[in-house]
Write a structure and sequence with these properties.
single chain; alpha+beta; five-stranded antiparallel β-sheet; 10 helices
């Protein structure tokens, strides 16, 4: 008999004496006892470590029901019936029962979680069996109980980790579904949309402004206030319309004076100006120009005429 299983047998005899007086359901109770004492209740979401033993038994019974059903282990089986069932599993593990055997163990398809249990029994018990399978007639009650306990130990170990693995995967899938649900429900954060704000302003208002310079939001609002035409739209839309403008190829040589009546074209890039697109009033432009926006003067040009401003808003 395997040393570990022998230790379990001795402990059971000492701690669970009442089990050895049972005439029915010994196999069933041994498996349940081993599970109840080893199951990790502290980490189990359905219970806690301080539950009463009766509650613990109910929880475990529900979790290992498949084990009982598929191996044909019942509450009201006699010791001899338990022994035959354990012997059947034992023989199966050692490859003694042929594949065509019509025993209850072979009827139907044993679920995947139990597919390696028989091999596990064979690996652990082969050395102890020494090629000899106990006989039904020659075994004493204690020997029968020993075999039942050995097989129960292996079934419990194998099934315990199978159950834990299945629960782990199910919880992982549930977390994934919950995360996916939250992702779909949560509003998607929109990325800032860069736009061009194009203004036609008096020449004297451009004094001190240069291409590629940054401009403060407060200063840009002042330019909006003095503009006579404006247009705010997506970058590609502005680029498509720009060829229609009558811009001088270069700035005039004479200096700009305060009383100048020339009109200048100022194009400003705004990194976050989606809400400004399509604005029809200066007020709307300024209201939707965010204080945190980054603004850069892309171009300052002298307009030869006001032709080509048809798409602009005229003040």
């Amino acid at each position: 008999m395997n040393d570990l299983c022998k230790q379990v047998l001795e402990i059971l005899k000492e701690e669970e004496k009442v089990l050895f007086d049972l005439n029915q359901g010994f196999f069933y109770k041994i498996i349940l006892t081993l599970f109840c004492e080893n199951f990790d209740f502290e980490k189990d979401e359905d219970s806690d470590f301080l539950k009463e033993k009766s509650e613990r038994i109910e929880i475990v019974e529900a979790k290992i029901n498949n084990l009982y059903v598929h191996f044909g282990i019942e509450k009201d089986q006699s010791i001899n019936e338990d022994y035959k069932k354990a012997l059947e599993i034992y023989k199966k593990a050692l490859g003694i029962i042929e594949d065509g055997d019509e025993s209850s163990l072979n009827r139907g398809r044993i679920p995947k979680i139990f597919s390696n249990v028989s091999q596990g029994i064979a690996d652990i018990l082969r050395d102890n069996a020494q090629g000899i399978v106990p006989g039904d007639d020659s075994s004493t009650k204690e020997e029968k109980m020993e075999l039942i306990i050995v097989v129960a130990c292996i079934l419990v170990v194998g099934t315990y980790f199978c159950i834990r693995y299945i629960e782990y995967i199910e919880k992982k899938k549930e977390r994934s579904r919950s995360l996916s649900s939250l992702t779909h429900q949560a509003p998607q954060e929109e990325r800032p949309l860069g736009v061009y704000l194009c203004l036609v302003v008096p020449a004297n208002e451009t004094m001190g402004l240069f291409d590629k310079d940054s401009i403060q939001v407060s200063e840009l609002k002042k330019l909006i206030d003095v503009s006579s035409y404006f247009l705010c739209d997506k970058i590609e839309v502005i680029r498509k319309n720009e060829p229609l403008l009558k811009k001088m190829p270069k700035m005039p040589e004479e200096p700009i004076t305060q009383d100048s009546h020339r009109e200048f074209y100022v194009k400003v890039f705004i990194n976050d100006g989606k809400d400004m697109i399509g604005a029809k009033t200066r007020y709307s432009l300024k209201e939707n120009l965010k204080d945190t926006a980054r603004c850069i003067i892309e171009e300052i040009a002298y307009l030869k005429s006001l032709s080509g401003l048809e798409s602009f808003v005229r003040i």
